[in-house]
Amino acid sequence: MALPPFFTPGRPGPPLPQPPAPAPFGCPPPPLPSPAFPPPLPQRPGPFPGASAPFLQPPLALQPRAPGEASRGGGGGGGGGSQCRPFLGNDAGERPRPPPPGPGPPWSPRWPEAPPPSDVLGDAALQRLRDRQWLEAVFGTPRRAGCPVPQRAPAGPNLGEVRARLRGSLRLVRRLRDLGHALHEAEADGVAWAQLHAEAQPLRAELAERLQLLTQAAYVGEARRRLERVRRRRLRLRERAREREAELEAEATRAAEREQEIDRWRVKCVQEVEEKKREQELKAAADGVLSEVRKKQADTKRMVDILRALEKLRKLRKEAAARKGVCPPASADETFEHHLQRLRKLIKKRSELYEAEERALRVMLEGEQEEERKRELEKKQRKEKEKFLLQKREIESKLFGDPDEFPLAHLLQPFRQYYLQAEHSLPALIQIRHDWDQYLVPSDHPKGNSVPQGWVLPPLPSNDIWATAIKLH
Question: 48 phi and psi, to 5 degrees?
Fold first, then answer.
């Protein structure tokens, strides 16, 4: 196969195709032109169109070789078809110059000139230039130097200008009306009429000039559209202001309700603390009085023991004196017995009084303990009731949705109103009870059963798989 003129002996061959330069920021070049991605960056031109010079110049049209050249070289590489060469040259010793670049791809106008080679600017400067070009391609659409500045659409009529024009026209109409009356009255006086007519002519011209734009349908329509836009904007702002005021009022109402609730809770806490403190004081006082009563009862018992011991001591002394032959008179025994009886009566009265006080204190303490037990029981019942209501609400929320999060425009709102109408309307409750009462039967009826008091819940799952499915959903 004969070599083309460019591959004559003694000339170095074309440089090996270099891989394309990496795209900035690690982004590969897109296969199709897109404004969101940068095109392949231009590189130094090479002798052949290919990977070394993408998009810098259009690929040259491949031309068939001449018949004489096709027969040279003895036919290496086979194939009877037409062969192509990259460039056409005058002779074997002259390297052909590439043709001027064509229009190029659609994005080539963004970079009218190729960046200089890296050996002129340096690798860092060239990389900055490529980054800047990529950023301009992605985030901006710079205008070419030769492109004319796009003409902006003419601005519509200004409402202030329209208002001023209308007011001026109305003022001119009033002035011309007055001049018309004056002209009608001055018909007999020609000089005055001519003077008034000359005064009215510039006013008519000015009025015609002012009404020139006001008679155009496009101008008036645009002014009406702008006025309608301003009116809607004002209505929207007023609506927002009203909504803001309503929100502020609702927030103030909610804040007042929260303050009242906090005050009620605080008063309740203070009352509970005071009640507990009063109960503790009463209990301490009762315990103190009871301890005093018990102490007095112990003193009474000690006095009884002392009287018994005194009586026993006198008896022993009397026996000792009798053994010695000394006998006390009978009056001494009577006096001693009299004092003992008097002291026993006094101790008995005191013991009965102390027992009555103890019983009263015990009754009071038992009453307080009973009240405390009642309060504990009521508190426990209230907690159980709240727990039951919470469970009931949870079941209702699972069946019908959460009422707090249930919107008014929900698809199931009519059904909810139908099933809950008895809670808000007495006639509906009476009608529902009447409908239920139609099915009342005696208690001994074989097919009769009672109305369930709560929700009829489904039975427990029959197996573990069904339980897993219910738990998941």
Answer: -120, 145
Nearest 5°: CA angle at 349, between 347 and 352? 110
Is residue 108 a contact partner of residue 93, using CB atoms and an 8 Å limit? no
> Which pairs from 444-447 meet CB under 8 Å and 24+ separation?
none
Secondary structure (3-state) at 63: strand
For the chain, domain boundaries: 159-255, 259-374
Q: Look at the chain and count its residues.
A: 473
Global confidence as pTM: 0.34
Using only the alpha carbons of the chain, give its radius of gyration.
Answer: 59
Using CA atoms, how far apart are residues 286 and 180, in angstroms rounded to an integer?
Answer: 111
d(CA 285, CA 283): 5
CB 28 within 8 A of CB 22: no
The gap from C-alpha 26 to its chain's centroid, in whole angstroms, comes to: 38
Q: What is the DSSP secondary-structure string of 348-366?
A: HHHHHHHHHHHHHHHHHHH
Phi then psi for residue 64, to 5 deg, are: -70, 150
CA neighbours closer than 13 Å in the CB half-sphere of residue 449: 4
Per-residue pLDDT of the chain in tens (473 residues, 90 and over written 9): 444 444 444 444 555 555 555 544 444 444 444 444 444 444 444 444 444 444 444 444 444 444 444 444 444 444 444 444 444 444 444 454 555 555 444 444 444 445 555 555 578 888 888 888 888 887 765 555 555 555 655 556 777 888 888 888 898 899 889 888 888 888 878 788 888 888 888 888 888 888 888 888 888 888 889 889 999 999 999 999 999 999 999 999 999 999 999 999 999 999 989 988 888 887 787 778 778 888 888 888 888 899 889 888 988 888 888 888 888 788 888 888 888 888 888 888 888 888 888 888 888 888 878 888 888 899 899 999 999 999 988 887 777 667 666 666 677 778 878 888 998 899 999 999 999 888 888 888 888 888 777 777 778 888 888 888 776 55
Which parts of 234-277 are beta strand (E)?
none
Give the separation between CA 175 and CA 202, rounded to whole angstroms: 12
Phi, psi dihedral angles at 84 (to 5 degrees):
-120, 155
The overall longest dimension of the chain from CA atoms, in Å, is 188
**Six-digit token string for 89:** 């040259």
